[in-house]
């Protein structure tokens, strides 16, 4: 199981003062030293946190996987084609949202998604689509020629009670099994924390988790390297069972 650490919040702190600290590239190097498998960053159309310069710097300096989260916006697609991250995760983007809210609707956006996927793949970029754990979305993803899907774990993370949480976990498990059975690589993420990560990490069909908020929040108190190591240990424990 790979862990991709989303460091957008480091850039959010810097942008709060429009200054030059903290630098996301410094965080990326520390995450790499903590033996995470990848760095995830989202270059948003409104540039509210990660800036173009961060993407280029991180791509140049880190040796682990760079996963660029991105919308279908043409300007962003062109930057991705130029930077050539190891992986691109296509996500929906609305300007007013606090974070990415739902999965990308591949059924509705099929032509645009297929077009962007093809262009990214032609540069050797591994493409993943961020979708809700839904069979229709998985089938449309497969048809779009993507290589992977990232299952949205937000409904699981935000469940109001244990019954709802188990229902959402089972949806994730069924979706992961189905996506893998039709030849897709399966990732998952959004809203995962030190408290709720283990049941998702235990799902064998899922091979990558992308986690941001919880790790960066913990790092305020324990430092980013320890925060990453603590998350890695929980994932390892879940996988051993
Ligand atoms: N995966 C995707 C596709 C996301 O958009 C985000 C949030 O940027 C994450 C994972 C990480 O979510 P969180 O910050 O809640 O861990």
The count of β-strands is: 8
* SSE order, one letter for each helix or strand: EHHEHEHEHEHEHHEHEHH
Tell me the count of domains.
1
List the bound ligands: pyridoxine-5'-phosphate
Structure description:
- 49% of the residues lie in helices and 17% in strands.
- The chain is of the alpha/beta class.
- It has one domain: TIM Barrel, CATH 3.20.20.70.
- An 8-stranded parallel beta barrel has the order 1-2-3-4-5-6-7-8, surrounded by 7 helices.
- Helix 3 (52-61) links the parallel strand 2 (38-42) and strand 3 (65-70).
- Helix 2 (24-33) runs parallel beside helix 3 and helix 10 crosses helix 11.
- The chain is globular and about 45 Å long.
- The mean pLDDT is 96.
- It binds pyridoxine-5'-phosphate.
- Residues 6, 8, 42, 69, 89, 91, 99-100, 130, 150, 189-192, 210-214 line the site of pyridoxine-5'-phosphate.
